[in-house]
Amino acid sequence: MTWKSLHTRFSSQCSVCRKEVPQGTEAYWDTESRELQCTDCHAALSHYREASGAGAGARYEYERRALREASEKERKWGKVLSFLTLPWQTTSFETRAWLQGSKGEAKLGALLDAWSARHDGTVLHDCRASLRPGARSNIDHIAIAPTGVYVIDTKTFAGTVAVHRGGIPFLRESPTLLVRGVDRTNLVDRMDWQVETVQRAMDDLTVPINPILCIMPRYAASWKGTFRIRRVLITDAQGLIRLLRRRGTLHSDARETIARRLQSALPPSSGSR
Ligand SMILES: [Zn+2]
Questions:
Q1: What is the pTM of this model?
Q2: Among 103, 14, 18, 107, which Cα is nearest to 59's?
């Protein structure tokens, strides 16, 4: 927890609602991200800031963005008119995607918890990973199974998700991940830092780390199957659980040691938002 209550020395701006915070006003300051929040925004977000578990980080981001957009709308339309707008008209598509993402993470989180309870595995949710001082990022889930460690990034998509293998086989074009026809292979690239972070935290090169991009479709029929792009496996929740259930050589003592190491190096992000 890095938030501090203070009285502003200069006239400033709230990082959430963008309203002016006059000099000498009470506000909250995060020493790590160097972010200032007015007392209203800080109070409105407190419940989501402290929340823990799968999807909590994405939910906090949704609430933060929604608060900003509501405040922008109020500035533009005035209090009365913006009060009359319907809730789904106050948030943008991008902001609502954070809410859908948080729901997808929570849903997968529950499935992973059920797997770990039944199969003696360990799962960590919403792990805090600092890339550099002041910057924060999180890893959605880490599962420690008999076949190794699984670093899981959850993505919730509506519409078709497909892997395009490239038209001419002998050219060995690398496959692309298409979401509603748009190239989102960058999501595969973004798994690199997550694998590096977990590798560093584990400090054990003998245990395999498997990067997984888990697609949580918003409509049942939009995604089926398991594909690999470079070392990243792209699958759905059922495919992931099947992988975790496989027999392997990592016995329970070794799994516990890894879990303890990862828990201390990459703690849950609750209280650090
Ligand atoms: Zn504010």
A1: 0.84
A2: 103
Q: Calculate the alpha carbon distances from 51 to 46, 60, 260 in Å.
A: 9, 8, 22
pLDDT tens track for 214-231: 998 776 555 667 888 889
Centroid of ligand 1 to alpha carbon of 131 (angstroms): 27
Residue 184 φ/ψ, nearest 5 degrees: -120, 35
Query: What pLDDT was estimated at residue 135?
Result: 56
Task: Looking at the structure, tell me whether residues 151 and 16 fall in a common domain.
Answer: no
Centre of ligand 1 from the C-alpha of residue 86, in Å? 22
Instruction: Establish if 132 belongs to a structural domain.
Output: yes
Task: Report the separation in Å between the CA atom of 129 and the middle of ligand 1, taken as the mean of its atom positions.
Answer: 26
Locate 77 and state its tokens: 């339309």
pLDDT tens digits for 116-167? 999 878 999 999 887 655 555 889 999 999 999 999 999 988 777 888 876 5
Q: Which domain holds residue 121?
A: 105-265
CA–CA gap between residue 108 and residue 174 (Å, rounded): 28
Q: What is the separation of C-alpha 179 from the centre of its chain, rounded to a whole number of angstroms?
A: 18
